[in-house]
Design goal:
Elements (H helix, E strand, L loop, with lengths): L30 H9 L8 H13 L11 H13 L5 H11 L3 H67 L19 H5 L4 H6 L1 H11 L23 H21 L1
The protein binds a DNA duplex (18 and 18 nucleotides) through helix 5.
Length: about 260
DNA sequence: TTGTGTTTTATTGCCTCC
DNA sequence: GGAGGCAATAAAACACAA
């Protein structure tokens, strides 16, 4: 960029910058002046007292063709003003500029840049929020997937037992597809297959079922206590699938709550 | 002291609104 | 069409490690 950027540029679309954007009337500094000036550099972080003491000197000694930072006092006031309203109406701009001893253009530029910084930060915050929500959903999804797998293997195992029981009862060798739990004997109702009221479930593998289910879904323990005729009993879950559904709904809801709170 | 990365101030060009 | 906002960018000022 050209060295005269602090002077009025007629080509600019914001033609309200008529003269030096910085106030200092001290005129062009030589290379020597610039070197002297660099030795006067104010540390970026210093106490407010230091600033109050040396701000004037700092500003008076700077050459006008150099970009210079606002004092902490100025920034503090601008920040306070930004807090109350992040947009700048013309009247407030003029007032602030007067109060701070800056060009109105400088004030509006500061607000512009401040809004940009705020937006960047906000995007960062939003990103982190979304990321943690995503992570939580992912972990919920994984655990549901595990549960699903576990329940499927239980169904397979229990179906095998039912099949064996039928075999011994009828003395028949089952068709090959009857061994497939998915294509089990259609004569057996779904409720009967899953019902814990079955003697097979209660006597042959009660421990296995109880243990495994307790560890995964403590909330559906009643499933093991109701009999076949309680299938529609409201004291239990109403029905077995209802119990499972509740658990899944719970799991999902938890994920969503965790997501947005 | 110097090289490098970050922050701040300022410009430019485009867009929208009145 | 002018004013003001925003995104992209330049460049000075500053921090900090080597």
């Amino acid at each position: 960029m050209e060295s005269n950027k602090f002077f009025f540029n007629p080509s600019t679309s914001h033609g309200n910058m008529f003269f030096l954007t910085n106030l200092n009337p001290v005129v062009q500094g030589s290379m020597i002046n610039m070197e002297e000036e660099s030795s006067k550099r104010r540390p970026f972080f210093c106490s407010p007292d230091d600033l109050l003491y040396d701000d004037v000197d700092y500003y008076d000694d700077q050459t006008p063709d150099k970009k210079r930072r606002l004092t902490h006092e100025q920034v503090h006031l601008l920040e306070k003003s930004f807090e109350t309203e992040n947009k700048l109406e013309p009247e407030r701009k003029t007032q602030l500029a007067k109060k701070l001893g800056l060009q109105p253009r400088q004030v509006s530029v500061w607000f512009q840049n401040r809004r940009a910084r705020w937006k960047t930060k906000q995007l960062e915050r939003d990103f982190n929020l979304l990321k943690s929500s995503y992570d939580q959903l992912l972990s919920n999804y994984d655990s549901i997937l595990k549960d699903n797998h576990h329940l499927r293997s239980q169904v397979t195992s229990l179906a095998g037992k039912v099949q064996a029981k039928e075999e011994t009862a009828t003395g028949q060798v089952p068709e090959p597809n009857q061994l497939d739990p998915v294509n089990m004997n259609p004569a057996i109702k779904t409720e009967d297959r899953l019902s814990s009221g079955s003697a097979v479930l209660d006597e042959d593998a009660p421990h296995q079922l109880r243990d495994s289910c307790d560890s995964y879904f403590p909330s559906i323990v009643p499933i093991h206590h109701h009999s076949g005729q309680d299938t529609n009993n409201n004291n239990g879950c109403g029905n077995d699938t209802g119990c499972f559904a509740d658990v899944f709904v719970q799991g999902e809801s938890f994920g969503l709550w965790g997501c947005w709170t």
